[in-house]
Amino acid sequence: xxxxxxxxxxxxxxxxxxxxxxxxxxxxxxxxxxxxxxxxxxxxxxxxxxxxxxxxxxxxxxxxxxxxxxxxxxxxxxxxxxxxxxxxxxxxxxxxxxxxxxxxxxxxxxxxxxxxxxxxxxxxxxxxxxxxxxxxxxxxxxxxxxxxxxxxxxxxxxxxxxxxxxxxxxxxxxxxxxxxxxxxxxxxxxxxxxxxxxxxxxxxxxxxxxxxxxxxxxxxxxxxxxxxxxxxxxxxxxxxxxxxxxxxxxxxxxxxxxxxxxxxxxxxxxxxxxxxxxxxxxxxxxxxxxxxxxxxxxxxxxxxxxxxxxxxxxxxxxxxxxxxxxxxxxxxxxxxxxxxxxxxxxxxxxxxxxxxxxxxxxxxxxxxxxx
Length: 371
Ligand code: SAH
Hints:
The chain has 371 residues and is α/β, with parallel strands linked by helices.
């Protein structure tokens, strides 16, 4: 917690990192320097709309102020360790977030939009059995600066013609388990003075943290995607262990409540297609019953394999049939096109570099017990 608070505020040189600060905090910072609060807006314009993070290039600030900022503040972005480009144009960056931890961010260009899939945690504690990130364990929450920094960095690297138009929290981590930082980031993504994206173009994807879903509509109602993945508690308990705490019906109730506040009024349900696990006509039938007449659409995700997994993807015919069955039952359903799988950038393949703190601690104890 403490580590995270420090990360969000200071960069490695001890200067205040202005990336990810709320407009109010930024205005307060300038007032503290004896400046007018509107300086906050100017800085946000430079960093978030133009990708300029060097104070010296900010020509509407006086030389004196630029020099002062140079001394006490920074606009620090995560460092790039590696960038890989898929044959389909998808780009993946491995980003250093300090202490040997690295997270991944994925840029997916399409004819009319460019989606950035961002990470909110180094690792993930939810341990979904079919997800590479979950298999690696959990290290820590990312700060707002580290999360928003991914968007600034990609826009800056790719230039205005390729600017990010949509942001999805579908990279590493469970965004609603890092609630405060994620909400700060979302507010800047939809703020006209910052990124100015519409609420429909920002999607939070969650494995189903019910209390946080209930809270979210009061804080920011952007698009919501929920990783349902199974139509019964019996199967979902095995795939998405958080289901043991919040059952499907409780989760769906929270979703319908959230949908009432949504501009698009629809929640997306993600459903990974796992051969022999959740892909039968009977599964489609039960799923359709859960969602019929509700503000819901289903996005079927072909399972993306990773080393060591016990699962296999359903066949293309099985996926098509499942989709057809849902549609004939009156459910809006689509199949997600796999992108970037040749560079392990597809859904669920992001492993980054994560030292699992829980396992490390367990290891320490074992060593102590043995000595
Ligand atoms: N923690 C968030 C974001 C996870 S990643 C969540 O659970 O929603 C985004 C989506 O990819 C989720 O629906 C997740 O369940 C899915 N996913 C994870 N591993 C996958 C895999 N190996 N193949 C396909 N989809 C996967």
